[in-house]
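Internal tracking record. Fields below are filled automatically when a chain is submitted to the structure queue. Please do not edit lines marked as system-generated. If the sequence contains nonstandard residues, flag them in the REMARKS field before resubmitting.
Queue: standard
Priority: normal
Entity type: single polypeptide chain
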Amino acid sequence: MGWFMLAATGIPVGDALIVLRSNGPRSAVYGIHGTTAVVMLAISVLLLVA
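SYSTEM-GENERATED OUTPUT FOLLOWS
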């Protein structure tokens, strides 16, 4: 389960890159997509350690 969550962490990172390339608001990049990626990464590490 942890490996799938780790792989899914790439989705918000990709979304953040899309928003950046389309000159979207940086608050959305860091506040929404960046935070989601960090939380998903932390959860996946916890699942892999458990």
